[in-house]
């Protein structure tokens, strides 16, 4: 799987978990300390996040990072 596809899958997983938990983008921004625009870019697969940002998103969603990372 190429990096672009992985970023898209990562973003889709963030959105899927966020919506399943009933968390808005704005609420995730507050919980994770990440700007709304950055979360939107992550969900759209337009941002290759550093590890600490990935951890912050997972923490904001209340899940382990492994839940968000696509399996090969």
Give a short synopsis of this structure.
The protein has helices at 3-20, 25-32, 36-43, 51-61, 65-68. It has 72 residues and is mostly helical.
Structural write-up:
By secondary structure, the protein is mostly helical. It has one domain (3-61): lambda repressor-like DNA-binding domains (434 Repressor (Amino-terminal Domain)), CATH 1.10.260. The protein contains five helices and no strands. It has helices at 3-20, 25-32, 36-43, 51-61, 65-68. α2 (25-32) crosses α4. The chain is globular. The mean pLDDT is 94.
Strand content: under 5%
Helix share, percent: 55-70%
Query: How many beta strands in the DSSP annotation?
Result: 0
| Number of domains as seen in the coordinates | 1
Individual helix count: 5
Low-confidence stretches: none
CATH class annotation:
Mainly Alpha
The H-level CATH homologous superfamily, spelled out, is: lambda repressor-like DNA-binding domains
Elements, N to C (H/E): HHHHH
| Distance separating the two termini | 7 Å
Q: What CATH architecture do you see?
A: Orthogonal Bundle
Key words describing this protein structure:
5 helices, mainly alpha, 434 Repressor (Amino-terminal Domain), 72 residues
Write the layout of secondary structure elements.
Layout: H1 3-20, H2 25-32, H3 36-43, H4 51-61, H5 65-68
Helix pairs in contact: 2-4
């Amino acid at each position: 799987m190429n990096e672009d596809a992985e970023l898209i899958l990562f973003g889709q997983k963030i959105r899927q978990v966020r919506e399943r938990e009933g968390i808005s983008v704005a609420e995730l921004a507050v919980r994770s300390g990440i700007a709304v625009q950055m979360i939107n870019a992550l969900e759209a697969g337009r941002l290759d996040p550093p590890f600490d940002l990935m951890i912050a998103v997972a923490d904001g969603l209340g899940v382990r990072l492994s839940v968000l990372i696509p399996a090969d």
